[in-house]
Every structure is written in structure tokens, then in C-alpha cells.
Amino acid sequence: MSRPRTAPTPPVTARGVRTRDRLVAAARVVFERDGYLAARLVDISKEAGLSTGSFYTYFAGKEEVFAAVVEVTQNDLLHPGMGRVEDEGDVHAVVEASIRAYLHACRRNARLLALLEQVAHVDPAFRELERARDETFYRRNARAIADLQDRGLADASLDPMLTSKALSAMVGRMAYGYFVGPPSERRSLSFDELTAGLARMWTNGLRVPDRAGEPVSSRAREGSEGRDRR
User: Fold this and answer.
1) Are 21 and 128 contained in the same domain?
2) pLDDT tens, 156-173?
3) CA distance 60 to 62
4) Which one of 104, 112, 129, 193 has the lowest number of neighbouring Cβ atoms within 10 Å?
5) Where does the HTH tetR-type domain lie (predicted)?
6) CA-CA distance, 18 to 13, in Å (whole number)?
């Protein structure tokens, strides 16, 4: 398989953008219904209410349109739209709201995530898309962790990137197993229990003070000073 890429000549008119979006939405339906290998361009075109010739105006083939579907999914996961938090200074509430929004996005995209995992096993290009998404999460969460450390709200002895990778991987794999795994996963734990549990593990891992205001330990602050000296 060749490397997935977006259409070489993106549409410049509003009508062209709408047509391309119809094809991407139709492709998602067909991929989720038939799987990647069995999906046919003629079925995607039919689902979109377009001719196969119209498909080739926007995409060179199946890999390109699948990459476009994956891009929409990745954007939803990266920007799921966090719900309103009454007190934005409440780290526990912000973490829980962020994880809840991410889990909702995983639930919306569960079938596509399962399909992407399968395709990534056989196509290095799609493996790279997964890796790039993970790296984006790692960097973003590392910045958030470093900010909490600077504010004295997280254990300053922790390496932000290493901690981000560990906590992000925990949430990502738990979410994948919950929504893509067997139904028994969802029967054993409610969505709210999963959200609260992951949020608590995240804040515990960072040693965020509890809502009563218990401070981060002096050992953590000393660790930060030592890191600064290095």
C-alpha cells in the first residue's frame, strides 16, 4: 500500500467542499459497515449519491479517502469539546471534564478506531498517523502537567513528558478496551465510573492536592529545585 495523503487538489469552491465532505461521510459509513479491505469505491460513490467519476475528482483511491476519514476522526479525538466547568481553578473538575469529553469522542468513533487499528497493523503509513496522534496528545498533556507543576499543583519531581506518556497511554488503552472490546467490558463498569476512576488515577498520579487544599509535599518541591539546578 502507498502512503495515505489528502487529495492533491483540494476543492476551492463551497460546492466542491460540500461534495468532498459527502464522499468522506459516505466512505465512513461503508468502511464501518464493510471493513477496509471489502469496501469498494463504487459503494462509497453510491452512498454519497455520486458517480464513481465524481469520486476520482477528489480522491485518487481508497487509501486517500480512508486517510480523510481518519483525519476527521483524529480531529474529533484531539478537540472533543470539553463541557463547561464551573470553577476552572478546580484541577480535579477540569481533569474529569477533559477525560469525559475524550471518552465521549472515543464512543462516537469506536468502530473507526477499531478499523484503524487493524489497517495500521498492515500499513506503516497508517501506523504513522496513529503515532502522530499519540505524540500530539503527549506534548499537549506534558504542557498541562508542567503548568500545574509551575503553579505548585502537581508533584514537581515528575518528568512532564514521561508522566504524560504514561497517563495518556493509560486513558487511551482503557478507552479502547472499553468501547472496542467485548460487551463484558461495558457491563462491568459504567461510563461514569470509568470517567471518575481514570480522572482520579490521573490526579493521584500527579499528586494534585485534594479539594480541601492539602499542599503538594515538600519532597516534590525539592525535586523541582534539583531539576532546575541541572
Assistant:
1) no
2) 999 999 999 999 999 999
3) 7
4) 193
5) 17-77
6) 9
